[in-house]
């Protein structure tokens, strides 16, 4: 492909199947344009669920500034799987244990663990209706009045809602999470008027106090193999409903995440990140060239 200038390095990665692009903008004083993100998402080779843009921070204590795009070109406030990919990328450059990022909702600590897993501090959950946000007041956000299907026999109903950097709705079921037509229900619920900023929509089944299965329709991206913020929302909402403890394995279609809601009211998410290929891209147009395939 004929490249226009300037170009910047990028990596195609995934976090448990959550498709991620890390675009390294530290060498340029410009941004990835929304239309470039949409173009990259529209190509089979570079299709992503989230694009993580990293840029230089003025504060030497901060490893990078972070901006996040969904595949429809909209911005996102949080992406735990993407943050693990960023840490994995930077660890190849400068191996160390502790990282600190300036993200859309503030400072984000992360740690490269000894076993190669990566822990991301996803921050403090918010449960007040105006903080999620919801269009109208709900006194109890462990289960709000919302359903899909017939009034007398809804398919899904009474989700728990929270903000984990972005709005989350978790519908609880007691049977196979795969039997629900999330591809059909997801867009309707994501754009429901009760969510003025849209929301991630998750179907969750609590298997035991230490284990949850989930599937998620991500705001601005659709069904993904893994959504870190939704996994975090599922754990904290399950704990509020006294269905689990404050730590559990959350299984997503792509694999397992370990989620802990600690005593400091912070959510810690631990999981892997996988390299697919690297290349160069034009941050204005989304044109790209592919450089390598294999392990980083």
Overview of the molecule:
It is a single chain. This protein is mainly beta and 296 residues long. It has two domains: 8-108 and 274-293, Diaminopimelate Epimerase, Chain A, domain 1; 129-265, Diaminopimelate Epimerase, Chain A, domain 1, CATH 3.10.310. The chain is 15% helix and 38% strand. The chain is built from four helices and 19 strands. The chain has helices spanning 34-41, 80-93, 182-190, 228-240, and strands spanning 8-15, 18-24, 50-55, 64-70, 98-103, 106-112, 118-121, 147-148, 156-157, 160-163, 167-172, 200-208, 211-218, 222-224, 247-252, 255-261, 267-271, 274-281, 288-293. The strands form two sheets. The chain has a 17-stranded mixed beta sheet that branches. A hairpin with a 6-residue loop joins strand 18 (274-281) and strand 19 (288-293). The radius of gyration is 19 Å and the shape is globular.
Any idea of the CATH topology of the largest domain? Diaminopimelate Epimerase, Chain A, domain 1
What integer value in Å does the Rg equal? 19 Å
Look at the structure and give the CATH class of the largest domain.
Alpha Beta
SS field, number of helical segments: 4
What is the level-2 CATH architecture name of the largest domain?
Roll
Which structural class do the helices and strands define?
mainly beta
Shape: globular
Work out the strand percent.
35-45%
- What's the helix-strand series? EEHEEHEEEEEEEHEEEHEEEEE
Overall average pLDDT:
94
Low-confidence stretches: none
Largest sheet: 17 strands, mixed
Ends distance:
23 Å
Tell me the helix content.
Answer: 10-25%
């Amino acid at each position: 492909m004929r490249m226009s200038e300037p170009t910047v390095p990028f990596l195609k990665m995934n976090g448990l199947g959550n498709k991620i692009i890390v675009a390294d903008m530290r060498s340029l004083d410009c941004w990835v344009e929304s239309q470039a993100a949409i173009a990259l998402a529209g190509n089979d080779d570079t299709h992503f669920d989230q694009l993580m843009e990293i840029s230089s921070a003025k504060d030497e204590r901060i490893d990078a500034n972070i901006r996040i795009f969904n595949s429809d070109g909209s911005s996102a406030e949080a992406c735990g799987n993407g943050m693990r990919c960023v840490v994995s990328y930077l660890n190849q450059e400068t191996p160390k244990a502790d990282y600190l990022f300036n993200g859309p909702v503030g400072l984000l600590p992360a740690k490269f663990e000894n076993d190669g897993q990566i822990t991301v501090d996803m921050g403090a959950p918010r449960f007040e209706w105006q903080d999620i946000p919801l269009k109208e007041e709900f006194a109890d956000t462990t289960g709000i009045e919302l359903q899909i299907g017939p009034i007398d026999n809804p398919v899904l109903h009474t989700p728990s809602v929270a903000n984990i950097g972005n709005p989350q709705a978790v519908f609880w079921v007691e049977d196979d999470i795969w039997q629900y037509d999330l591809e059909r229900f997801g867009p309707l619920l994501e754009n429901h008027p009760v969510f003025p900023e849209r929301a991630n929509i998750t179907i969750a089944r609590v298997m035991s106090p230490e284990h949850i299965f989930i599937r998620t329709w991500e705001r601005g991206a659709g069904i993904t193999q893994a959504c870190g913020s939704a996994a975090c929302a599922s754990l904290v909402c399950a704990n509020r409903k006294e269905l689990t403890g404050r730590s559990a394995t959350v299984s997503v279609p792509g694999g397992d995440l370990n989620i802990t809601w600690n005593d400091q009211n912070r959510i810690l998410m631990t999981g892997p990140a996988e390299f697919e290929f690297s290349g160069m891209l034009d941050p204005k147009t989304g044109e790209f060239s592919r450089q390598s395939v294999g392990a980083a």
